[in-house]
Design brief:
283 residues, alpha+beta, Ubiquitin Conjugating Enzyme, 36% helix, globular, E2 ubiquitin-conjugating enzyme, ubl conjugation pathway
């Protein structure tokens, strides 16, 4: 009898699929899902880093804006151009500040002009170095009941100037039918006739003309307008009294001129009672 030995059959490696050790392994489903997840995580981290960088830059811009007054640091280079060409880099949030920049540029230009060439009998300048807050002075016209008076005005510019008129009121009391007790002025160029081509110099000149000739047909204080029409003499008397009391500079009470030691003293004459008393012979 022939004995059969157990023969172990080894499978042919070449014939077995995916069994070649030198061939490129086929990625399984786990590896396929891991690669997109890794790419997504990398993109997310990159986006987060850029977001943090943008937030940091925004914080720097906001911090710098909090530490300085944008109206006092504006110059011609920071003002947006009306020709559509960009002059420089625009910081974050500069779009909302564009009207403020335009207003500040216009106000600063008018300030320089009024300093160089003020209108007749008028002057204006900034109040406490505030660009959008001015104080002005109008001198009463010669020959009017306000002659000799120096009337102070308060001027406030809105952020949408010059598309809206400035807010102007008298801070000096004045007896006028077109000016009320709080200093508000009834003037057409400050209301319906305002135009962006107007400026503060023209408005001050209009106020000066209003002092010389009031508009009693369109009054702000009706009782003063009625007195102006019916009793002009009494109206002018009260207006002059108010001008002298509130608008004219007051002289100090002790206005005596100090004696100059170099000036020769007055010599008393023979008809002076003191001289007669001293020269009187004893009895």
């Amino acid at each position: 009898m022939s004995s059969h030995r157990g023969i172990t059959v080894t499978p042919d490696i070449a014939s077995t699929p995916n069994s070649n050790p030198t061939s490129t392994p086929t990625p399984n489903s786990t590896d396929t899902d891991t690669e997109p997840a890794t790419a997504t995580a990398t993109a997310t981290s990159t986006t987060a880093a850029s977001t943090e960088t943008t937030a940091g830059a925004r914080a720097v811009v906001e911090c710098s804006c909090d530490t300085m007054d944008p109206l006092d640091t504006l110059d011609d280079d920071n003002v947006p151009s009306t020709s559509g060409q960009q002059r420089g880099c625009t910081p974050v949030g500069a779009d909302s500040a564009a009207p403020v920049s335009t207003c500040a540029f216009r106000v600063r230009r008018e300030l320089n002009e009024i300093r160089k060439n003020p209108p007749p009998n008028c002057s204006a300048d900034m109040c406490m170095d505030r660009l959008l807050h001015w104080t002005a002075t109008v001198i009463g016209p010669t020959g009017s009941v306000y002659e000799g008076g120096h009337f102070k005005l308060d001027i406030r510019f809105p952020l949408n100037y010059p598309f809206r008129p400035p807010r102007i009121r008298f801070t000096t009391f004045i007896y006028h039918c077109n000016v009320d007790s709080v200093g508000a002025i009834c003037l057409d160029v400050l209301n319906e006739r305002w135009s962006p081509v107007m400026n503060v110099s023209k408005v001050l000149l209009s106020i000066w003309l209003l002092l010389g000739e009031c508009n009693a047909d369109d009054p702000l204080v009706t009782c003063i307008a009625d007195q102006y029409k019916t009793n002009r003499q009494e109206h002018d008397k009260v207006a002059r009294f108010w001008t002298k009391r509130f608008a004219m500079p007051k002289e100090p009470k002790d206005s005596k001129k100090p004696e100059d030691p170099s000036e020769p003293k007055e010599i008393t004459g023979p008809n002076d009672p003191e001289q007669k008393k001293n020269n009187r012979e004893p009895t």
